[in-house]
């Protein structure tokens, strides 16, 4: 935990130094960041809106990474979840309100889970590298999103690269344009509690942790590693799909070509920074949610280029993921050595 805090503080200090050398006022930037994340009107709503998305996607990432499966397809699963939700909301808009909302959320969960199942099956049955296959499914999801947003779901008012689906009925929205409401807060809280229970209070959570640390020992003890892999991919995809559904029913109200394009990768970073735990995920999501809200607000009140602020996320990603990879390799080496002694 101390190491991750050190990297975050170091990244903040580095970006501050670069801004200072470039001639920008650090006081102005700092005030803008605080206002954008916390004190401006609806700032907390913006922070919690992004935090909710990071929690929903990050929960699935944590489950898969703890089991030793690296699902980098969160963005694609998010898109398929959003497409499932918007399809139900548009084509069943005259149904009972709460039932339509519930089925839209379910459609998002199913869409994300099914999209994650394919690389999961390839990994388990054919030992295909899940990093490559999940990244490829992200690109396929973008093509599916573009095709449908310019096809059967298209809003006639849109065109070209800006094409988007029709907007869902306002009565089916679970939040206003800010993307935050008691409903979205309840969903993210439910997911956090469920994640904590899975990781600490279920047989599956304990077994998946063993598989992640030492798959050889897990097999030796009779664990079906392939079955665990399929389940974590389904759970991971379902969580990202739920995030897509919440985004459609909340802030966006529709899908469009390439919307929220960085959400999945940022959520993966949030999950790693969290230390792969539920409480850590909540804290990391709020931090990155505040940073995203500030990133969108600062250019309004200053001339600081957004790319300078995005550099901070990139530096945190570099340091934290590098440390995570080193630690994971060390843990697995220790596990293999111990299992070799036992055998």
UniProtKB/TrEMBL annotation:
Specify one Pfam family. BPD_transp_2
This entry carries the following GO cellular component terms, namely: plasma membrane
Q: Where are the transmembrane segments?
A: 5-27, 47-69, 76-92, 98-118, 130-148, 179-199, 263-288, 308-326
Look up and give the membrane topology term.
Multi-pass membrane protein
Q: Which GO terms describe its molecular function?
A: transmembrane transporter activity
User: Where is it chiefly localized?
Assistant: membrane
UniProt cross-references to InterPro entries, sorted A to Z: ABC_transp_permease (IPR001851)
Keywords tagged on the record: Cell membrane, Membrane, Transmembrane, Transmembrane helix
Location in the cell reads:
Cell membrane
What is the protein name given in its UniProt record?
Unannotated protein
